[in-house]
Write a structure and sequence with these properties.
Length: about 325
């Protein structure tokens, strides 16, 4: 697809996204994606550089799938943008299956709905979130499309369509990783402090937008601000799902820092060095994680996928779960 057409598509996509729905205000999502792709080393999936304008320009597209006017899409998509860790402290380890996680949360809801109805009201898939599952699912789709890119090039065929497929999935992955890097996406305190509040933090829902939208736009964040901070690729080995969970935990641990900074001046001063430092730290973390996942996916795509026997949907598989109809990874 020609760059001009990619840019047109990106512009249309951004025009269709309601401004109130754009996490990180749209700006940081685009910055994270651009910085991640610009940081891909020469032995990585460099073909994505040709799509950087399309990917960065469409970085907030997944938020458009959350409009109440398209409620089937909203119900499915809303949980993918959060990971409210306080809601599932009862669940260890975290299941390696989206559906096993949803079922476990529902069972907890049923267990406490009479004794603690207030907690039960938020013990459900919407108010726990499924962000790490959305991220790992998008990651594995990227591995698949990168295999297609390699296969096309090796056969001397045009790889443009396969590359476009990868670009779209990078938009999805980049958005979820970008959301996960924002500490308020990793806590029940996403839109104002909930529950006991001895430090007097704000309960105003607007804290979310004032931090990730108004302040980020006001400080005029660009990819050039964070690209030099990213460093060399990591996550070259190890379990990727575990890496995503650790990434979310690291961001979530900074949630109270957001509230403490808001209490000081309400994010009114765009030159505030401490708030700017937190924005730089978290957008850099998001860009680095996305870059690492893209490079790792490229490496994995060079390997012929192993045949799994018994199949995950075979009743004979020792990990087969009758509640989900499949075996977890």
């Amino acid at each position: 697809m020609r760059p001009a057409l990619l840019a047109t598509i990106a512009g249309i996509a951004m025009a269709l996204i309601p401004t109130s729905a754009q996490a990180w205000g749209g700006t940081a999502h685009a910055v994270i994606d651009r910085a991640a792709i610009e940081s891909i080393p020469d032995d990585g999936p460099v073909f994505l550089r040709r799509q950087v304008d399309y990917i960065a320009g469409s970085a907030s597209l997944p938020d458009a799938w959350r409009n109440a006017s398209e409620n089937f899409s909203k119900i499915a998509e809303d949980p993918n943008h959060g990971w409210f860790r306080e809601q599932f402290t009862f669940l260890k380890p975290i299941p390696r299956s989206r559906y096993e996680f949803v079922i476990a949360v529902f069972k907890q809801h049923e267990k406490i709905k009479r004794t603690d109805p207030a907690t039960a009201a938020r013990t459900n898939v919407r108010w726990t979130g499924t962000l790490p599952y959305a991220a790992i699912e998008a990651y594995e789709r990227i591995v698949v499309c990168m295999r297609d890119v390699r296969a096309a090039k090796q056969a001397g065929r045009d790889s443009a369509f396969a590359e476009q497929h990868c670009g779209f999935d990078v938009i999805r992955l980049g958005h979820y990783i970008g959301d996960g890097a924002q500490p308020l996406h990793d806590s029940v305190n996403s839109d104002g402090w909930r529950g006991p509040n001895p430090k007097g933090y704000t309960t105003d829902k607007s804290i979310h937008g004032r931090f990730e939208s108004r302040f980020v736009d006001g400080m005029k964040l660009t990819a050039a601000d964070i690209t030099p901070r990213i460093g060399a690729p990591g996550h070259r080995d190890g379990d990727m799902f575990d890496a995503i969970l650790a990434f979310l935990d690291n961001a979530g641990d900074k949630m109270e820092r957001v509230y403490a900074l808001e209490k000081r001046n309400g994010f009114a001063d765009f030159t505030d060095k401490d708030v700017r430092a937190l924005v730089y730290t978290q957008t850099t973390a998001g860009a680095a994680m996305l870059r690492d996942m893209l490079c790792r996916a490229w490496t994995e795509s060079a390997t012929t996928p192993a045949e799994i026997r018994p199949s995950p949907i075979d009743f004979a598989n020792p990990r087969f779960n009758a509640e989900t109809g499949s075996a977890a990874d």
